[in-house]
Amino acid sequence: MQFDVFFSICQTPVAGRSPDEAQMFQNFFEQVELADKLNYECAWVAESHLSTEVQKQNRQPVVPHFKGEVGLNVDFLQLAQAVFARTKNIEMGSAIMNIICNGGPIAAAERIAAFCSFHGLNRDEQRQIKVGFAAGRFEFMNRAYGITPRNALEEVAWPVLKGMIFCEAAQIFLRLLNGEALSSEEIPAATMTRENFRSEEDWLAVQQANASIGGDADADMIKVEPRFVFEEIKIIPQQWRRELLDLIVGSHDPKLQAELNEIAPVKVFNLSITADELIDATHQRMTQAFNPAGGEWQRGYMPRTVMVFLNAEPDLSEQQQNEAAAVEAKAALSEYWNALEGTIDLKKVEGATENALIGSPQQVRQQVEERFHPQDRLMLWFDFYNHDSARVMRNMQAFAEQIIPQVNNDR
Questions:
Q1: Can you tell me the distance from the alpha carbon of 26 to that of 20, in angstroms, rounded to the nearest whole number?
Q2: Which stretches of 271-356 are assigned E, i.e. beta strand?
Q3: Phi-psi region of 229 (alpha: psi -120 to 50; beta: other; left: phi over 0)
Q4: Which helix (H) or strand (E) holds 309?
Q5: Of the four listed, 55, 59, 99, 365, which is most buried by Cβ atoms within 10 Å?
Q6: How many Cβ atoms sit within 10 Å of the Cβ of residue 296?
Q7: Could you give the domains of the chain?
Q8: Residues near 399 by beta carbon (within 8 Å), at least 6 away in sequence
Q9: Which of 52, 100, 89, 63 shows the shortest CA–CA distance to 250?
Q10: What is the C-alpha to C-alpha distance for residues 15 and 12, in angstroms, rounded to an integer?
Q11: What does DSSP assign to residue 225?
């Protein structure tokens, strides 16, 4: 089993405490340096854009109840460079890079090529950047870059259209990273049909909107105009070490996963709340869909985030550690759902608790062994709603020393 660390760098009040930006980054760097010394394999870092706090004033706030900033890391590549300069072995992963905003897929591909070019100048450097990429979780971050409906049809079809925009962007992104020269005309045009929508009423509304802009009101298929339009281009630099780049898509769309793997080996990013049935189905499907250039599909190619509420405080008995960890988990998860939705959804709290690792080292080790496959790759989220960096690091160390060796030895 492989063990990584996930960092959110989330600047939100916890128990009335909200560190300033400098302290947040200092906490991150001391934690990632420890992760390197403890031999965690990869540091996955959340990426966010624009102020979550300010967007609450907008007409369509996405997370109106969230206090502070969802994340302070706005540039994974700059952060990765800083981490590599401070560490020896740990790799870096984006969780997740938004390829829609900040210039879109073309700019994202070129920035990655530039990073890998600089990073690979040292021929002894073998550490990868693992680029998890998606369309971003919060729509306001994309709206500022013009990713909004362009007409009445797109307004009505927007919930479906957003996914098609990401599909278009992902194909451009991958083909440019492959070193291709291409124009937007070479990207297959997307179309909307009844199958894309949940109900007959939704599809009828789309057909009516299509008619309002001069289209056919009875169309069985509606072409989607490309979002990214450009003549033939090719990114530079071109001669960089592609073995330093690992690509992971943040989507559970089976069709998209297969389509992207026709272009390049693309792994799958997984969230902690995903049902086991979906995870197993993805592994089964990817054994056939994974691009042969990446070799045979392995379970570690779908890293899984998991929140960790570990209590290994030496002054507590094992029972007290288990009880304290349960209290900590419930408090943190309640604050999280309250921040996202304005209410504490007990069902969601319970569901998230079932997907978290909670308790003493002995209890957490048992949970890992019972719930995960011996070849899984876990992204351990220690800093979830926790600004006590010293405690976070104690938990990281306890997990590395008291859980990982035993889990891997037992198997």
A1: 10
A2: 304-310
A3: beta
A4: strand 304-310
A5: 99
A6: 8
A7: 2-147+167-175+240-410 (3.20.20.30)
A8: 3, 308, 310, 361, 364, 380, 382
A9: 100
A10: 10
A11: P
Closest CA to 289 of 252, 244, 246: 252
**Is the distance from CB of 33 to CB of 81 less than 8 angstroms?**
no
Q: How many other CB atoms sit within 10 Å of the CB of residue 381?
A: 23
pLDDT beyond 70 at 165:
yes
Confidence of residue 275 (pLDDT cuts 50, 70, 90): confident
For the chain, what's the residue count?
411
pLDDT in tens, 137-163: 888 899 999 999 999 999 999 999 999
Residue type, 141: M
Nearest CA among 138, 124, 49 for reference residue 89: 124
Contact present, 157 and 121 (Cβ < 8 Å) = no
The C-alpha atoms of residue 192 and residue 196 are separated, in whole angstroms, by: 6
Can you give the pTM of this predicted structure?
0.94
Q: How far apart are CA 316 and CA 104, in angstroms?
A: 51
The whole-number pLDDT of residue 344 equals 46
**Is 266 in contact with 249 (CB distance < 8 Å)?**
yes
Secondary structure class of 245 (helix, strand, coil) = strand
Token pair for 135: 């369309």
The per-residue pLDDT for 348 is: 54
Work out the pLDDT band at 7, boundaries 50, 70, 90: very high
CA 65 – CA 53 distance, rounded (Å): 9
Place of tokens 């003549």: 231
C-alpha atoms less than 13 angstroms from C-alpha of 233 in its C-beta half-sphere? 21
92 touches 83 (CB < 8 A):
yes
3-state secondary structure of 176: helix
Tokens of 76: 């994974």
- CA–CA gap between residue 119 and residue 253 (Å, rounded): 32
Give CA angle at 378 (49, 51), nearest 5°: 10
Structure tokens belonging to residue 285: 């499907």
Q: Which H or E run includes 45?
A: strand 42-45
- Residue 353 CB partners (closer than 8 Å, separation 6+): 329, 330, 333
Question: From the CB of residue 166, how many other CB atoms can be counted at a distance below 10 Å?
Answer: 27
DSSP state of 131: E
Distance CA 123, CA 322 (A): 47
